[in-house]
Amino acid sequence: MIYLRLFFEFFKTGLFAVGGGMATIPFLYNMADATGWFTRMDVDNMIAVGESTPGPIGVNMATYVGYLTGGNAGGLPFALLGALVATLGLITPSIIVILIIASFLKSFRDNRYVDSAFYGLRPASTGLIAAAGLSVVVSNLFFTGALENGLSLAVFNWKGWALAIVLWLLTNKVKQTKKLHPILFILASAVVGILLGM
Predict the structure, then answer these.
(1) Could you read off the pLDDT of 83-126 as tens digits, one per residue?
(2) Contact, 39 vs 28, CB < 8 A?
(3) Which 8-state DSSP code applies to residue 174?
(4) What are phi and psi of 55, to 5 degrees?
(5) 146: exposed, middle or buried (Cβ count in 10 Å: 0-12, 13-18, 19+)
(6) pLDDT at 152
(7) Whole-model pTM?
(8) What DSSP string runs through 84-147?
(9) Nearest residue to 66 (alpha-carbon basis) of 47, 88, 83
């Protein structure tokens, strides 16, 4: 049944994506390849929408994928059920781990092994987040399919580069726009993306 698989796939993601929502992105790329429920381009679009909507990006993406996958099973009630199942799958491991940690926190607070384990998780979560960020940059600034024909100017997504450079200039170099709220840049980027068909 599709709902059990949805729950299981997102449970695995929630269990191993240490470091927050951005750490779920490599797992989502893998899920796209393994299940065919969505494409890698869909993941990039989910990141863009998820980053510009309230709430944790991992939960937003799980809800969206569940909605799409459940909707393919037949209509709005199934889409809503899919969204609920995927979201619960993603957050259940965190709830379990938090409950376990809370019950043992006092006895393990000063344990050097626990402290060392958490210290070791820092570079792992940093690596997952860096890999996710690099994947997003490559997929938005380069046409990776064009690399198969050799390195040429056709590899560069000029619209993506132009938008990235303009945003960098406006947020770092132009004194009048430097202090504007980030949501204004997110909204402006969304409008530009729609107008340019990005």
Answers:
(1) 999 999 999 998 998 888 777 776 776 778 877 887 888 898 88
(2) no
(3) -
(4) 105, 165
(5) middle
(6) 65
(7) 0.61
(8) HHHHHHHHHHHHHHHHHHHHHHHHHTT-HHHHHHHHHHHHHHHHHHHHHHHHHHHHHHB-GGGG
(9) 83
- Characterize 73-92 residue by residue with b for buried, 16 or more Cβ atoms within 10 angstroms of its Cβ, and e for exposed: eeeeebbebbbbbbbbbbbe
**CB–CB of 34/65 below 8 Å?**
no
d(CA 149, CA 152): 8
CA dist 78 and 86 (Å) reads 12
For residues 130 and 136, give the distance between their C-alpha atoms in angstroms, rounded to a whole number.
Answer: 10
**Please, are residues 66 and 84 in contact by the beta-carbon 8 Å criterion?**
yes
pLDDT in tens, 42-60: 888 888 777 777 778 888 8
CA distance 14 to 65: 14
What does residue 52 show for φ and ψ, rounded to 5 degrees? -105, 10
* Residue 109 neighbours by CB distance under 10 Å: 9
- Residue 25: alpha-carbon gap to chain centroid: 4
Residues near 172 by beta carbon (within 8 Å), at least 6 away in sequence: 178
For the stretch 131-190, pLDDT in tens is 888 888 888 888 766 666 666 667 788 888 888 899 999 999 888 888 888 888 888 888
Q: Side chain identity at 5, as an amino acid letter?
A: R
C-beta separation of 87 from 62 below 8 A: yes
